[in-house]
């Protein structure tokens, strides 16, 4: 009876034990599953960013001007690296081993993944090893048989032994040396960088690595060393478009040019994904995409890269030949106001970060202000004709080749006598332009200057764009009117001056500028009568003809209209330098149906040649010959055999 009761008690206890286990399992696996899963995820699952590329920049024909290429960076946790290195050295010291001895033992005593290193009898060593908590080191208790020293009786006893996983050990020893080998650096460079920042938990070691190199580092699974994807901007057009397109920094943020002006449009939105990381912080598994990366928006510029390159090549030749300080040019589509080319020299290689500083990064076509000189004379004549103050046959007496206004003497190069508006443009008479300007009111002249864009914003909002200065009409005196008629007393940038010349190329109508390729022509504003604009345009043909100031701008087969300018540069105290000049040429081609406007400026040409017709006009001819061919513009001049 007692036995039956005892069995019942035992069975009851066993049953209760299973019930308890079942209840515990139900509690853990059902009731607490969400909590425990969340706690486990906190220790293993991480959300990491997915980099997003910037949008591509194209020219009007689809040629790439800027794109983002996949790259990678390597970053380190100096504190983790130093901690593991110090613990590893302490581990060797406790076992009285050298690094080379450990390597030899690892090769000799290998058993599957683990290598037997040493038998230990001192429990204090075991305690110290446990405190180090060094990955890849293990303590195993192995039963050993030995004779007692007194009675030689064989005794079995569990003794601790030290085992290591050399693969895990190698993840934190030789880290600087292994990194140096892959990155092509000196080991001491990396050691220095680590120990100069011993408490840092994040430090870039190198950025802008090709993915293959980053993959080699990733495959080594070094403790405290991590890789992450990123993008680097590449500019296929190089120097020829650098000042316009600009560049990005190492974090792919726009810093200059189009890259800066349209940064919000071009930059991508990073995504997020969940991954499983091991104890060392390396990704071991992918879980899911939390948020897809969104690439930046592409954009198509109005620029024609082929024309841009020909302009760059021609201007570089001029800069070298005339030992100029700087050279710039702008080419516009005469019908739409689209910028087909904008070149500035000196330039730089945007793919070389060491060149992204200094004066070479300036886009001088918009940053540098100048007095436009005689290139303004056609506008003076156009406005006077449009107002009915003169006509094409009017004659202006320029004798004796000078005029004095409010105590200021204005002169021509020669005494030209009586000149028509056409001859004033052809011979570039300051006296003739001044006398015509004085027929207008100051308000009429000044407002017309503003209407064609002088002293106004271009509307493009390009970084560094300088807005010219134009005095208010109430401050204009007779001398201001006279000097403004031949381009002095105010300033503008090259882009705005090119924009003004659309007046003649577009039958008296001004259209807004655009750096973005347009799908249809914009709506313009009529400033002068079409017949007036056409008449002045034909007057400017004489500038390029024999006897004009710029016969070197002639293009075989095409009618060319143009105007030269040779401007004394201002000095820092407000006057004019005696022997430093700015040489300009503004041209429109072809006259019968204008397709393009181009303005070239050469800053401080030397070697004794500085007139716009001799310095800037040849560059216009060279570029326009190529541009007319590329745009398939038919000749409009009948060639007559000699």
Tally the beta strands: 23
What's the tally of helices? 25
Rg to the nearest angstrom? 40 Å
Shape field: elongated
Percentage of residues in DSSP E strands: 15-25%
Distance linking N and C termini? 143 Å
Which segments are poorly predicted (pLDDT under 50) over 5 or more consecutive residues? 284-288
Helix content: 25-40%
Determine the mean pLDDT.
87
The major sheet is characterized as:
5 strands, mixed
Structural class: alpha+beta
Secondary structure topology:
Elements: H1 2-31, H2 33-44, E1 45-50, E2 57-58, E3 64-76, H3 78-94, H4 99-108, E4 110-111, E5 114-119, H5 123-132, E6 137-147, E7 154-164, H6 166-169, H7 175-183, H8 187-195, E8 203-209, H9 211-220, E9 225-234, H10 239-245, H11 257-261, H12 263-266, E10 271-277, E11 283-291, E12 299-300, H13 305-321, E13 326-333, E14 339-345, H14 364-367, H15 377-386, E15 396-397, E16 402-405, E17 408-411, E18 418-419, H16 421-427, H17 430-437, H18 442-451, H19 478-485, H20 494-500, H21 502-505, E19 509-510, E20 525-526, H22 530-539, H23 541-544, E21 561-570, E22 576-589, E23 596-603, H24 612-615, H25 617-630
Parallel strand pairs: 2-12
Antiparallel strand pairs: 1-10, 2-3, 3-8, 3-9, 4-5, 5-7, 6-7, 10-11, 13-14, 13-23, 15-18, 16-17, 19-20, 21-22, 22-23
Helix pairs in contact: 3-5, 7-8, 13-25, 15-17, 15-22, 17-19
